[in-house]
């Protein structure tokens, strides 16, 4: 019998992948399915394109391009995790990353959300970084992984 799932978010960055790898380690130990989540918005598709290592000159920032880049990120991450024998589900959702993570966790009845600590220091913490918002508002457990 497997335990309740674990949710981890990624933007394709090296620091996000450190947190995803910790989530994978926990999922394996607990016999849980790992849900890999990427959030996107039309305003940030340029960043998503860079994160997905897609150098496409003249790409118009829109939700479609951002979604495609986010899908490539979760596909790459989930393929890597499945090669390790993990049960993985993916979610690509438009919205603010912290809200998307918590919505997926609620919908999947997750036992835990795993996020990296990047962005918790200084002014970004005051402004509401993803780990800060998730740690204060999630309805399930939260593990904040040191990634830097």
General description of the model:
This protein has 6 helices and 5 strands. By secondary structure, the chain is of the alpha/beta class. It has one domain (6-40, 77-145): HUPs (Rossmann fold, 3-Layer(aba) Sandwich). A 5-stranded parallel beta sheet has the order 3-2-1-4-5, sandwiched between helices. Helix 1 links the parallel strand 1 and strand 2. Helix 2 packs parallel to helix 3 and helix 4 (97-107) runs parallel beside helix 6.
Following the backbone from N to C, one meets helices and strands in this order, namely EHEHHEHEHHE
Principal-axis shape equals globular
CATH H-level homologous superfamily name: HUPs
Largest sheet, strands/sense/barrel:
5 strands, parallel
pLDDT averaged over residues: 84
- The portion of residues assigned to helices is 40-55%
| Major sheet strand order | 3-2-1-4-5
Poorly predicted regions are 53-60, 123-128
Number of helices: 6
Whole-angstrom Rg = 15 Å
Helical/strand content category: alpha/beta
What is the top-level CATH class? Alpha Beta
**Count of all domains:** 1
CATH architecture grouping: 3-Layer(aba) Sandwich
Distance between the termini: 35 Å
Count of β-strands: 5
Q: What amount of the residues lies in strands? A: 15-25%
Q: What name is given to the CATH topology?
A: Rossmann fold
How would you summarize the topology of this molecule?
Blueprint: E1 6-9, H1 14-30, E2 34-40, H2 45-51, H3 63-83, E3 88-94, H4 97-107, E4 112-116, H5 122-127, H6 130-137, E5 141-145
Parallel strand pairs: 1-2, 1-4, 2-3, 4-5
Helix pairs in contact: 2-3, 4-6
């Amino acid at each position: 019998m497997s335990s309740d799932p674990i949710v981890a978010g990624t933007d394709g960055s090296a620091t996000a992948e450190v947190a995803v790898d910790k989530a994978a380690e926990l999922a394996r130990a607990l016999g849980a399915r790992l849900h890999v989540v990427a959030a996107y918005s039309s305003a940030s598709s340029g960043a998503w394109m860079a994160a997905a290592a897609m150098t496409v000159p003249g790409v118009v920032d829109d939700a479609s391009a951002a979604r495609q880049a986010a899908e490539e990120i979760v596909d790459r991450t989930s393929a890597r995790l499945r090669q390790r024998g993990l049960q993985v589900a993916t979610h690509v959702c438009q919205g603010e990353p912290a809200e998307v993570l918590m919505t997926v966790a609620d919908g999947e009845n997750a036992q835990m959300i795993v996020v990296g600590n990047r962005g918790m220091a200084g002014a970004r913490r005051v402004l509401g970084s993803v780990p800060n918002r998730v740690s204060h508002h999630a309805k399930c457990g939260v593990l904040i992984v040191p990634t830097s």
